[in-house]
Specification:
The protein is mostly helical. It has 15 helices and four strands. Helix 2 (21-28) crosses helix 3, helix 10 (202-220) packs antiparallel against helix 13 (261-274) and helix 12 (238-255) crosses helix 13 (261-274).
């Protein structure tokens, strides 16, 4: 089996282009000499499992797939066997496991699963609880059954989104097939918003991809966002709702999952809450905001927070943008 460094290296190797030992060294914080040694060991293991590594002087290293199904099974097996080593890694692991676990799980089983003492695990779970409280989630303890996460579906998804985004950015062991799914979702969304010339920021675009990815998994597991209230429906414009319906239709076809009305509104809220609009400015480039409009916007953002836990209330940029939008609608 592969250790953490070898698994990280395997995920960095490309089938399409050569990469240098120095580039691996920089990303994994290891010496070039260590990288070359690991590549040699990794190649010996891969040869028996459907792939091998080739090198080209002046270019670097590239992965060659000989048996796609064989190497896919090999990578999945190693990813499942990966064990967190540090407290931070265990907390991330526990967050992901508990948020996706339907039933109660016993502390003893978790302890054996990641090979740590019950005392160490208990300490890590306390840290997990602290993180979950930010999303109004709790760990329910039931005698003789174990623990599980309880909370509203929307809060669960927000929490899942945070660790998903963190893994995409910093975890080199994030499964390749999930990255491919994210890319496909991105292509679908890009196609829809480009057709309507709809503008959102890069960060908002990435967040939307992650939330739709999570929605697909949760819907397939029969977990749904409840229908929104009238106040929230008023905050979603016709454009966002139409875009959300188009995205849902294409994603449903590609991933064989049906988006009910509540899930389409969920996508629309992400679009409406994060879109990029030009601010209304005076001749000197200053933003013109009426106090009455500002007060209305504060109330709107409070509704957003209470209904969906998006806390834009103290975000000056978001508050000003919404105020500008409100101003433009009254001109």
């Amino acid at each position: 089996m592969l250790d953490k460094r070898q698994m990280s290296l395997l995920n960095l190797l490309s089938e399409k282009e050569y990469k240098t030992a120095e580039s691996f060294s920089e990303k994994l914080n290891l010496s070039s000499k260590t990288i070359r040694t690991l590549l040699k060991i990794l190649d010996e293991t891969l040869i028996e499992n459907g792939a091998h590594i080739i090198s080209k002087h002046g270019y670097g290293y590239r992965l060659v797939i000989d048996d796609f199904e064989k190497i896919k099974k090999f990578k999945l097996l190693n990813q499942k066997l990966y064990l967190p080593e540090t407290s931070e890694e265990r907390i991330q692991y526990l967050l992901e496991y508990l948020l996706n676990c339907k039933d109660y799980v016993k502390i003893e089983d978790l302890s054996q699963m990641i090979y740590v003492s019950k005392k160490t695990l208990t300490h890590d779970i306390k840290e997990v609880e602290s993180l979950m409280r930010k999303y109004n989630l709790e760990i329910d303890r039931k005698p003789y059954h174990g623990i599980r996460v309880v909370g509203a579906e929307f809060d669960l998804r927000l929490c899942i989104a945070e660790f998903t985004e963190r893994r995409i950015k910093i975890d080199l062991n994030y499964p390749e097939e999930l990255n491919e799914e994210l890319k496909e979702i991105a292509q679908i969304i890009m196609k829809v918003i480009d057709n309507k010339n709809y503008k959102i920021s890069d960060v908002a675009f990435q967040n939307l991809i992650v939330h739709i990815h999570i929605a697909i998994k949760r819907i397939k597991a029969n977990y749904y966002i409840p229908l929104g209230n009238n106040e929230m429906s008023e905050l979603v414009g016709d454009i966002e709702l139409k875009l959300a319906k188009d995205c849902a239709r294409l994603i449903s076809k590609r991933f064989d999952v049906e988006f009910p009305k509540s899930e389409i509104e969920y996508i629309a809220v992400h679009l409406a809450g994060k879109k990029m609009l030009d601010l209304i400015k005076d001749g000197k480039g200053n933003i013109v905001i009426d106090q009455e409009i500002n007060d209305v916007v504060k109330e709107m953002l409070q509704v957003v927070y209470e209904g969906f836990k998006f806390d834009f209330r103290t975000d000056d940029v978001t508050r000003t943008t919404f105020s500008a939008i409100k101003s433009s609608s009254e001109i």
